[in-house]
């Protein structure tokens, strides 16, 4: 991902299709437009909510059947498995089975926060477009973001994080699928998140930002390689939103 301080960020093309459908034991490591969508206020989400009731499309069901015939994720704890399966479903990349890094405790905390109505903040609109079960906050297109980026000499992605944090405060779920500088800003700003889903893609800064996230001690979901993107980041969030079991 190339973070230009004066240019807008865009998500990966893959999310236009894959993210709309959603897309340790096996891995390793621990630890839509501008402004706010309707129903999300500063420091709070849309209110406590049960998991979204959804009917699985036959194509999606067949995709998961094929996925499970090719890779056995049953040794994973339930939330870790749900997140990994939906990432693989969104990307058709079985290597994510050994690439996702998180802990069940981190995921359970994120799920509990989402159930309690924690706001969801995304780095770019492409990630927000893939999260269909809840309203999100995305400041990347706000004119104030560009002004802050130019004044502070930072990327639009980093500026968007600053503005979003001023709006939602601590306890949000942050979802990054595009811009490593957004992930670095989340870490450095001390946003006190409920969970950070950090899955930016690219050869410049992506692996470094995800390693920094794991080293930070923040509750997180990330991956080891350069892979990632808007579709898989949205898929990871959707896995929690769709989860019907109780947080462990």
UniProtKB/TrEMBL annotation:
Record region (Disordered): 1-55
The protein, known as: Precorrin-8X methylmutase
Stored Gene3D superfamilies: Cobalamin biosynthesis CobH/CbiC, precorrin-8X methylmutase
Xref: Pfam families: CbiC
Domain of life of the source: Bacteria
Organism: Actinomadura logoneensis
InterPro entries: Cbl_synth_CobH/CbiC (IPR003722), CobH/CbiC_sf (IPR036588)
Compositionally biased residues, Gly residues: 21-46
Pathway: Cofactor biosynthesis; adenosylcobalamin biosynthesis
Domain Cobalamin biosynthesis precorrin-8X methylmutase CobH/CbiC: start-end pairs: 59-242
